[in-house]
Automatic annotation (TrEMBL):
InterPro entries: SOD-like_Cu/Zn_dom_sf, SOD_Cu/Zn_/chaperone, SOD_Cu_Zn_dom. It comes from the Bacteria. Keywords: Signal. This is Superoxide dismutase family protein. It comes from Kaistella gelatinilytica. Residues 1-22 form the signal peptide. The keyword rRNA-binding does not apply. Belongs to the Cu-Zn superoxide dismutase family. The keyword Nucleus does not apply. Residues 36-166 form the Superoxide dismutase copper/zinc binding domain.
Length: 167
């Protein structure tokens, strides 16, 4: 409860920190799966926080990336294109020597297929003019398998089981 109150204050005028929200996007199931859930984004000042809640995954590790096209229409999610990579880097682990701007990493689904991933960064923005940072118009893709942080340019993460258009 304390945390909720605090975050409301930080978003408000009292601390004059600007706050942008992009909330409650639904995850579209892909590749014949039943993947469900939501993705929420909040920007406070220069920091963007993603809260991803996923259900009905296979238990275990699943890669999560931002992909470059805001289009989930294909049944296999291929319409979302490749990893969002405005700086033309190699694929890798977030925060390492080289990585794509969309290389969020992996999430772990429990035995019920439920997973939550909270991710914080000052490298993104919500709807700003800097296209090397703006996540609007992209997609979140959840994969069938694990990102090995090594294989180019995909991390060998397998098929696409969930897709979120960030509009
Ligand atoms: Cu991906
Ligand atoms: Zn990548």
């Amino acid at each position: 409860m304390k945390i909720t109150t605090l975050s409301m204050l930080v978003c408000g005028a009292i601390f004059t920190v600007s706050c942008t929200t992009a909330k409650n996007y639904k995850i579209n199931s892909k590749s014949g799966t039943n993947t469900q859930g939501t993705a929420d984004f909040v920007q406070k000042g220069k920091n963007v926080k993603m809260d991803l809640n996923v259900y009905k995954l296979t238990p275990g590790i699943h890669a999560v990336h931002i992909h470059e096209k805001g289009d989930c229409s294909a049944t296999d999610g291929s319409s979302a294109g490749g990893h969002w990579n405005p700086s033309k880097n190699d694929h890798g682990k977030w925060g390492s020597e080289h990585f794509h701007m969309g290389d969020i990493g992996n999430l772990v689904a429990d035995k019920n297929g439920t997973a939550r991933l909270i991710f914080d960064t000052d490298k993104w923005c919500i709807g700003c003019k800097d296209e090397s940072k703006n996540i609007i118009g992209k997609t979140i893709i959840i994969h069938a398998g694990q990102d090995d942080f090594h294989t180019q340019p995909t991390g060998n993460a397998g098929g696409r089981v969930g897709c979120v258009e960030i509009k």
